[in-house]
Amino acid sequence: MEYQPMELPFGRESLEPHMSAETLSFHYDKHHFAYAGKLNTLVDEADRVDVIELINKARADGNIPVEQNASQLYNHDFFWKSLSGEGQAPSAELLAKIEAAFGSLDDFKAQFKAAALGVMGSGWVWLVADGDELKIVTTGAAETVAGTNLKPLLTLDVWEHAYYIDYRNRRPDFTDAFLEHLANWSFAEAQLAA
Ligand code: FE
After folding, report:
1. Tens digit of pLDDT for each residue in 74-102?
2. How many angstroms is it from 47 CA to the middle of ligand 1?
3. Which residue has the higher pLDDT, 7 or 194?
4. pLDDT score for 60
C-alpha cells in the first residue's frame, strides 16, 4: 500500500469565498501530497501500518522524519474533514458541552481564536475531548494529537500555506472564517460519539 491523502470530502469550489479553490489546489495537491510522497520514501512497503500506529511507532523509535510526515498526513486528512461549506452550527447536544467547557459558543470562538493567534509560526489548533471534557489545545509545526489520550473533534491548520493566498498574513480573519463559516460541527459530533 501507498500512503496517500484522503479524497477531499467536498468540491474544490464549495468552500468559497472562505477558502478558495486555488488555496485547495496548493494545500491539498502540493503540500498534503508532498507529506504522503515523502512518507512513502521513508517507510518500506512491509512497514506501512495504519497511520496512527505508524505515528506511535515513530514516536517510540525517535524517528522524527517519519513522525512528522505521518502526522502531517493525518493532520491534513483531519483538517479536510473539519471543513464544510454548509455553514453549520453545533447541535443542541454539542452546544451544551461547549457551554459547559467554555461558557458560551462565543466564548469558545474567542478562546479558539486566541489559541490560533498564540501559535508562533506553523501549527494546529484542536478542539478535543479529554475524557468527558472539551478542551482547546495547540500543536506546533507537524505535531499531532493523534495517538495521544486526547480525542480530536475539529482542527484548524494555521500554517501560512493554509491561508496566505486568500488572506495574506491575516490569520485572525482566516480563523474567523473557519469559526463562522467552515467548521464541520456534524463531523465534530460524530467524533465525540465514536
Ligand atoms: Fe497544511
Report:
1. 999 999 999 999 999 999 999 999 999 99
2. 25
3. 7
4. 97
**Ligand 1: distance of its center to the CA of 46 in Å?**
28
Task: List own/partner pairs for 21-30 with CB under 8 A and 24 or more apart.
Answer: 22/165, 22/166, 23/162, 23/163, 23/165, 23/166, 26/161, 26/165, 27/76, 27/157, 27/161, 27/162, 28/76, 28/80
CA of 93 relative to ligand 1 center, distance in Å: 30
Q: How far is the CA of 43 from the centre of ligand 1 (A)?
A: 21
The Å distance, Cα 157 to ligand 1 centre, comes to 6
C-alpha cell at position 156: 484548524
pTM: 0.98
Rg (CA), the chain: 16
Whole-angstrom Cα distance, residue 166 to residue 185?
23
What lies within 8 Å, CB to CB, of 35 at 6+ separation is: 69, 72, 73, 76
What distance in angstroms lies between residue 69's CA and the mean position of ligand 1's atoms?
A: 12
pLDDT tens digits along 105-136: 999 999 999 999 999 999 999 999 999 999 99
pLDDT tens for 141-192 read 999 999 999 999 999 999 999 999 999 999 999 999 999 999 999 999 999 9
Cell 471543513: give the residue. 83
